[in-house]
Amino acid sequence: MTRKREDRGRPPGPSAADPLRPLEVLQRLRVVMRAAQRHSQWIERQSGISGAQLWSLQELADAPGLKVGELAARLAIHQSTASNMLDRMESRGLVRRERKERDQRVVRLYLTPQGQEVLDKAPLPARGVLPEALRHLAPAEVSQLNAALDVLISRMGDLDRDFGLRPLPFNE
Question: Is residue 8 one of the residues assigned to a domain?
């Protein structure tokens, strides 16, 4: 039996006896991404801001005075992405930046009363369904999922690892 050109160099597909076939995993990944996408779209319709912006408001409500880099770390995004998002949020009056320390380069972030009002009226979970679900996994489950995803990513070839530092474009 000869294999198709695109199959050369790849191991043969799974046998029918495999308990969890790759297409079932693909379907589950689609469910996860679609649920996150739908929640983010619903957030935007209900609150008028993106899911990432709402998550930012929640983080600032929980820890007033975060630095931009600290907020970026909590959202698992690049600092420049967080800064651009904060520019939009500040222009809408949702957050304010303060420089109080001797080093004027240090910027602290705070919710404005308008930002708090948007957060109070927004649907839950403010962080999004996927981040919230991940927060409720046991540490061992997070480790196991992370390891499996690392293997999957490594099998996908040459990927831009910075993709992981950008929010998903759910509002397209």
Answer: no
